[in-house]
Structures are given as structure tokens and as C-alpha cells.
Specification:
Keywords: Hydrolase. The protein is of the alpha/beta class and 258 residues long. The chain has a domain of 178 residues: Rossmann fold, CATH 3.40.50.1820. Strand 4, helix 3 and strand 5 form a beta-alpha-beta unit. Helix 2 crosses helix 3. The longest helix is centred in the N-terminal third of the chain and has 15 residues. It is globular.
Length: 258
């Protein structure tokens, strides 16, 4: 499958170091809003994109593979005239970041891998979720998605934000969501992690039910040479939104290291 032209929003100075943000399955680029202003203020050029099948990006027919999602980001960099970029990805965006670090090392200045996995099974879970979405639409999985993304306390304190994300998931095209489920179902990057040479920070949410730190973040950090692991307390799967100050501080610290 050929690369698609991703919907993107670019903020910050045109000559700043480029940081590309890739989001979770079921999200659009608005999930990164808490990170934009702090990075722009530090002189970074922030590029947020909707993955294929999500938000305002095209929805080509499936199946999708992680190779396709990675090729889309490389095409985005080419279109923007960016030779090398930092990549920050959460969940599916982190999986895409690992693919880029493995297959396009010359294009990646550094990686931040948030609340993600190099192999996220069982495959049957993704087959069933894709089947549900194709039959009933993404609204059928929206509530379960919010329960994974946000801790119970955060949902109780901020029902408006929980509703915002419920609506976001329900707006994702069914085929785009289901085809990305297939890409995750077939993904296994564990044995390829040692190929990543970019400086890498792995950030996990201590209360993440989708990718628990010991099962998913730690194997990534141990598999990538020189990678560092940080676990943020009080954060579920969408930790970058639930605990924005902590995630943003860690991201900036990594980006600004010599």
C-alpha cells in the first residue's frame, strides 16, 4: 500500500527543531494539545498528525500494517522538507515510532515512547475488537476506551474531558479503527528493538491497564540500547493528557539533552 497524505497541524517557529507527535488508536491530534504551548515556547516546531483512518486523514481500505503507518510519517516528513525529526508517540504512535527507529534511523533524531508496547496480544483481542467496530461502529468501544485512557479518579473529577474523549473515539471511522487493530494484532517488534540507535525515553503510566509498565514499557527500555524508563504515578493509558505537566517535563528534558 502506498503512503497517504496525513492531516497535520504545525505550530512553532519554522526554523525550530521538529518534533512529530503520533497518537493512540482511537484518537486524533487533539490528544496532544497540552504539549503544544510548552514546546513552542522552548523553540520547537511541533507537528501533530492524525494516523491513517483517524481524524481528518484519509481512510484507505484495509488491511493496514505498521509498515504503512511508518511510511505515512516518512512521507509527511518529506512533504514538510524535514530531514530528521524527534518523534514522540503514545500507544499506536509509539509503535510507529519504534518502526521508524528500526527502519529509518537516519530520519529520527530521538524517540519518546509513551504508554506503548512492542508486542500487544493476544491477537484474538484485536480480531474481536475489529469485528465489533465493523459491525457496530466505534461508538460501541468508546466507553471502554475512555476507561483504559483515564483513571477512575480523573474521570470522576473531569466528566467533561471524559466525554470529550468518548466523542473523539466514537468519531473515528470504523474501517480506520478496525484496520489499525489489525496492524497491532500482527505487530511484533521485540527482537528488532536492539536495532534502534536513536536516544530513547520510555514513559509509562503507573496505572495503565492497556500497557502495564512491567509487561510492556520495561521490555522496550531493556531492548533498546541506552534507553531510559520513567513511570509516572496516577496516569492511565493517556498519561500525556491526564498528567500533562509530568509527561511534558520528561519529554522536554529528553529533547534538550546534548
Amino acid at each position: 500500500m502506498s503512503a497517504v497524505k496525513l492531516h497535520r497541524v504545525v505550530d512553532g517557529p519554522g526554523d525550530g527543531p521538529v518534533v512529530v507527535f503520533g497518537g493512540s488508536l482511537g484518537s486524533d491530534l487533539r490528544m496532544w494539545e497540552p504539549q503544544v504551548a510548552p514546546l513552542v515556547e522552548r523553540g520547537f516546531r511541533v507537528v501533530r498528525y492524525d494516523a491513517r483512518g483517524h481524524g481528518a486523514s484519509p481512510v484507505p481500505p484495509g488491511p493496514y500494517e505498521l509498515d504503512d503507518l511508518g511510511a505515512d510519517v516518512l512521507a509527511l516528513l518529506d512533504e514538510l522538507g524535514v530531514e530528521r525529526a524527534h518523534h514522540v508517540g503514545l500507544s499506536l504512535g509509539g509503535m510507529t515510532g519504534m518502526w521508524l527507529g528500526i527502519h529509518a534511523p537516519g530520519r529520527i533524531a530521538s524517540l519518546v515512547l509513551c504508554c506503548t508496547s512492542a508486542k500487544l496480544g493476544p491477537p484474538s483481542m484485536w480480531v474481536e475488537r475489529a469485528r465489533t467496530v465493523r459491525a457496530e461502529g466505534t461508538a460501541a468501544v468508546a466507553e471502554a476506551g475512555v476507561q483504559r485512557w483515564l483513571t477512575p479518579g480523573y474521570r470522576e473529577r473531569h466528566p467533561d474531558r471524559a466525554g470529550f474523549f468518548r466523542t473523539m473515539i466514537a468519531a473515528v471511522p470504523a474501517e480506520g479503527y478496525a484496520a489499525c487493530c489489525g496492524a497491532i494484532e500482527r505487530m511484533d517488534l521485540l527482537d528488532l528493538l536492539p536495532k534502534i540507535t536513536a536516544p530513547t525515553l520510555v514513559i509509562a503510566g503507573a496505572d495503565d491497564p492497556a500497557t502495564p509498565p512491567e509487561e510492556h514499557a520495561r521490555p522496550i527500555a531493556e531492548g533498546i540500547p541506552g534507553a531510559r524508563l520513567e513511570v509516572v504515578p496516577g496516569a492511565a493509558h493517556l498519561g500525556s493528557y491526564e498528567r500533562p505537566a509530568e509527561f511534558t517535563r520528561l519529554i522536554l528534558d529528553h529533547l534538550e539533552r546534548p
